[in-house]
Each structure stands twice: as structure tokens, then as C-alpha cells.
Specification:
- The structure is a single chain.
- The strands form five sheets. Strands 3-4-8-6-7 form a five-stranded antiparallel β-sheet.
- It is an alpha+beta fold.
- The protein folds into two domains: 177 residues, Uridine Diphospho-n-acetylenolpyruvylglucosamine Reductase, domain 3, CATH 3.30.465.10; 144 residues.
């Protein structure tokens, strides 16, 4: 164990002995996300930037292993040099984003429509628990599935079970051909256009719509990735205008990292709904994953948004609260079903019996 990791272990054991809460801090780019930690007399900050570096990378094995404090940009740059990528398309929200924060938040980007979400790419993880031990789950090769479910459990856990100190991720080759088609359509027209995309044998990897600010019009972007012949055939079938590659790259980056003008201002709700759900008419809206994710702005009551999401077979998250909307008393995430909450509480007691790691960040009161 190196010195920096040993120091983190010592900090955890000291905090546990003194019943101090622990706030796990990476690059700070996603601190807006999730519930705020309850006020505490004493809080220990674990700075994950102290453990950084890519440990192993085997391009032929399509696996990269890195310490949690490693900047996401460093990993992406290294993969790009070998013609590979993180296919789940993680949002950055800033240059300081770390791979540990990516896994802990569990967020995926537009390409996850076609390539799948982050949890499908986590092969293994090392966890620093409340006793200062390093627990190892999963492996570093795709064929090693031991402990794989625990690695997935840590994905999106917001640090509630312990400190993710190392992760192994599956990577994929960059597509041979990458093209973006754009269409000037309303939200309803775009949802109708996107409805059959999953059922068709086409290399559609992302589909998103943003309003233009002029009436009900907006721009639908559909991203095609794959073999040249398949992409060209899909372009002929779908129509639309092919966007210049540099402009397309910027379009998707701005949408993924929420620097598009639509995302200016807060509050912002994220609704995950069934495919083919029609427009919800809750306020200014953009959508991702061909309509399976709706971004809605406005000072909406949590009950109103949650009921709409549940009626559409999904759930709602107050993604950015802003300064005008009080936080829901039961947290920014849709409350768990009683049975799921019981399981989560049991897991929390097993990994963190004194409840010192990021208390309340994922589930209010846990």
C-alpha cells in the first residue's frame, strides 16, 4: 500500500473512532448532484486527488485500471491515442472530473443509448471500508466475473458504502465511422421520429433534442456510429442534414456536459421514462436517449414531477436544485420502495455500521 492510500486509511479510522462524518471529495465537479450532507459538528474531508494514476492499460484486452483520483481527461486522452473510448460517454461538468467520481455518481452520457450505461462497463473496484480495510471486488479482465454484482452496487452509490479507491473498466474501439444527422422538428415530432429507433437494425448510438427557443421548434440530433456501409445506409433511410464533424463533436459535448443554452438556469429535473412516452408538458424540456430521459426546467413541486414520471413508468430526480426551489424533505431522488429501502439500510450497516461515509447523499436519512 502506497503512502497516500495509507494516509486515507488512517483518516477513515480516526474519523470512525471519533464518530465524525466523512465527505469524499474528488474533483468537485458533481457536488451539486445528490442530497447535501446533514450539518455535522465535525466532518472529515477525504481528498481523492492524492491517489491518482493509471495502473494498467491493455488495449488488446480492452481494459483500463486506474486510481479513483485520476482525472477523467487523462484516461480519455490515453484511450484516444490507441483508438479506444469509454463508450458510456461520461459527462464531465468541468475539467476536474475524476474517474472515481464518474463511477460513484453513476452518470452516463448520450452514447449510452446505443452502447449501454456505465454499470455495464465496471469490471472491478477496490473499496476502502469503515475499518480502514481495502476490499477488492470483481477483476481486471472481462472474463473474471467474481464479485461483479458488488462492483455494480458501488456504481452510482454516491460513496455511501465506502471510498472507491480503484476501478477497472471495459473500453471499446472508436467507431470506424461517426456521423450526426440533424432535423428541425418539434418535441412531439422528434419523439415520434425516435420511437422506432431501437427496433430498427441501424447503428443509432445517440438521439437527443433541444428546443430552439422559437415557438415549439427545436433540433433533433441522431448519431450514427459503426461501419461505413452501415452508417451510409442509415443516413439514406433517416434523411436529415449531416452535420459537419467538428460541429457535431461540439454539439454532443455541449449537450452531454450541459453547456448548451437550454441548461442555463435552474432548477433542473431529470426524468427517466419508458420509451415512446409522449411529451409530458411540464415546462421547458429537452430529451436524451431518444426520449427515455427528459430534462425539464422550472420551479415544479416534487410530487407533481414524480407522479408524472411514475405514470410514464419511471422516476424523477431533482438534478440541480438552484436557489429558488426548496429541496424535497425526502431527498432529491425519487423515494425507494419500502422493500428496496430495507435492503439498502442492511447493506449500509454491513459496509458502514457507524454511517460515516457521505451520510444522506444518496438516500435521505441513510
Amino acid at each position: 500500500m502506497d503512502y497516500a492510500l495509507s494516509q486515507l486509511c488512517d483518516q477513515v479510522m480516526t474519523a470512525r473512532a471519533n464518530f465524525h462524518a466523512i465527505e469524499i471529495v474528488g474533483g468537485g465537479t458533481k457536488r451539486f448532484y445528490g442530497n447535501p450532507m446533514p450539518a455535522q459538528d465535525k466532518t472529515t474531508r477525504l481528498e481523492m486527488s492524492s491517489i491518482s494514476g493509471i495502473l494498467t492499460y491493455e488495449p488488446s484486452e480492452l481494459v483500463v485500471t486506474a486510481m479513483a483520483g485520476t482525472p477523467l481527461a487523462d484516461i480519455q486522452d490515453m484511450l484516444a491515442q490507441k483508438g479506444q473510448m469509454l463508450a458510456f460517454d461520461p459527462p464531465c461538468f468541468g475539467s476536474g472530473s475524476t474517474i472515481g467520481g464518474v463511477v460513484a455518481s453513476g452518470l452516463s452520457g448520450p452514447l449510452s443509448f446505443g452502447y449501454g450505461p456505465l454499470r455495464h462497463y465496471v469490471l472491478g473496484a477496490h473499496l476502502l471500508d469503515a475499518q480502514g480495510r481495502i476490499l477488492k471486488f470483481g477483476g481486471e479482465v472481462m472474463k473474471n466475473v467474481a464479485g461483479y454484482d458488488v462492483s455494480r452496487l458501488l456504481t452510482g452509490s454516491m460513496g455511501m458504502f465506502g471510498v472507491i479507491v480503484q476501478v477497472s473498466l471495459k473500453v471499446l474501439p472508436l467507431p470506424m465511422c461517426d456521423a450526426t444527422l440533424v432535423f428541425d422538428l418539434t418535441e412531439s415530432e422528434s419523439l415520434e421520429r425516435c420511437a422506432p429507433l431501437r427496433a430498427k437494425a441501424m447503428p443509432v448510438k445517440a438521439a437527443a433534442w433541444v428546443p430552439s427557443g422559437i415557438g415549439k421548434q427545436g433540433q433533433l440530433a441522431i448519431r450514427l456510429c459503426g461501419a461505413q456501409s452501415a452508417v451510409e445506409q442509415a443516413k439514406q433511410l433517416l434523411g436529415g442534414q449531416t452535420l459537419d464533424q467538428a460541429l457535431a463533436t461540439q454539439w454532443w459535448q455541449d449537450f452531454r456536459d450541459q453547456t448548451t443554452s437550454f441548461f442555463d438556469g435552474q432548477p433542473l429535473w431529470r426524468l427517466a421514462v419508458r420509451g415512446q412516452t409522449p411529451a409530458l408538458d411540464l415546462g421547458p424540456t429537452a430529451f436524451d436517449l431518444a426520449g427515455e430521459v427528459r430534462w425539464i426546467k422550472g420551479d415544479l413541486q416534487a410530487q407533481t414531477v414524480r407522479q408524472a414520471a411514475q405514470a410514464a413508468g419511471g422516476h424523477a430526480t431533482l438534478f440541480r436544485s438552484g436557489e429558488t426551489l426548496p429541496l424535497p424533505t425526502d431527498g432529491v431522488f425519487q423515494p425507494m420502495a419500502p422493500s428496496a429501502r430495507v435492503i439498502t439500510e442492511r447493506l449500509k450497516r454491513e459496509f458502514d455500521p457507524k454511517s460515516i461515509f457521505n451520510p444522506g447523499r444518496l438516500v435521505a436519512g441513510i
